[in-house]
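Progress note, sequence design subtask.
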């Protein structure tokens, strides 16, 4: 079997790992890409599953983000714990003699040998590969070319598969346009889409949520939503500062929108952070997932529930 194993720290590069895994799965096939969060089944022994998969693949990608080296638990650096899963993955990969490729994301720098446990110090001597935020698409394309030689020609996607994927994507795009406009064959465009107006009315108003961010801070965040003709306007606070809702849209039963903020570190110039919100209305509550990216730091998705603000 030829395959790719993606090692990553959930507290550091979960979002990057997911994006990369999607591209690699589309290129080499889902069965040839292993990422623990998706590929280990409930009740399965984590260590046994990891070691079994490492034995079956040819390439290990070690994703390193800004806090990969320093993230700690109970005052102890995770990498210094002998039973740390990321450490065990890398140790096993290095011992296997297979290709181990460090992949730097989020502006991270390659760690030095002195900063790593002796059992995995050899990682610092491996040639690294950078995936930048601004050049993500082209960088990933180059990474795919680096990985391709490890896959026998018989296991690579057929040449016509690109056309097939293009046709599938086109069909999906047409379906989405039809679904959003309501112009189904044989149906009058004047017919109201069932449920959409009711959902918009349910979303309209003021909402409040207690959001606990990954670095431990907890804030009461407020949302003022104004749905209009399938779009959503208003404000959503981040760190208790109201931000303008952009690209707000209702898709089926889901609400999606974007806000922006600035992140500064020391005397460095500020970087724009994009906050992507998606929510589903359940039993009168908005169940949100927030993903933020583009700043100096990397954050895992945050989940929270918003309720109508009392008296509003």
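Output:
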């Amino acid at each position: 079997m030829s395959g790719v194993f993606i090692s990553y720290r959930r507290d550091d590069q979960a979002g990057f790992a997911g994006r990369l895994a999607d591209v690699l799965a589309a290129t080499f096939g889902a069965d040839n890409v292993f990422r623990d969060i998706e590929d280990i089944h409930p009740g399965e022994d984590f260590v046994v599953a990891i070691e079994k998969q490492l034995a079956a693949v040819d390439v290990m990608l070690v994703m390193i983000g800004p806090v990969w080296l320093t993230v700690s638990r109970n005052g102890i650096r995770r990498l210094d714990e002998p039973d740390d899963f990321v450490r065990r993955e890398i140790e096993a990969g290095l011992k296997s003699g297979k290709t181990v490729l460090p992949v730097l994301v989020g502006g991270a720098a390659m760690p030095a040998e002195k900063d790593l446990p002796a059992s995995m110090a050899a990682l610092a001597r491996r040639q690294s590969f950078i995936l930048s935020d601004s050049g993500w698409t082209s960088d990933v394309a180059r990474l795919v070319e680096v990985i391709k030689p490890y896959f026998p020609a018989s296991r690579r996607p057929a040449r016509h598969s690109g056309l097939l994927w293009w046709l599938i994507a086109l069909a999906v795009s047409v379906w989405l346009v039809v679904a959003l406009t309501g112009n189904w064959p044989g149906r009058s465009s004047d017919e109201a889409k069932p449920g959409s107006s009711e959902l918009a009315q349910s979303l309209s108003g003021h909402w409040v949520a207690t959001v606990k961010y990954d670095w431990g801070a907890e804030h009461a965040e407020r949302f003022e939503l104004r749905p209009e003709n399938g779009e959503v306007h208003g404000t959503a606070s981040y760190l208790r500062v109201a931000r303008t809702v952009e690209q707000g849209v209702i898709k089926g039963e889901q609400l999606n929108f974007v806000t922006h903020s600035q992140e500064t570190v020391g005397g460095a110039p500020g970087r724009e952070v994009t906050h992507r919100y998606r929510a589903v209305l359940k039993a009168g509550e908005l169940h949100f997932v927030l993903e933020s990216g583009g700043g100096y730091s990397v954050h895992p998705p945050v989940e929270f529930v918003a309720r109508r603000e009392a008296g509003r």
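Residues 159-187 form one domain. Work on this subtask will continue into the next period as scheduled.
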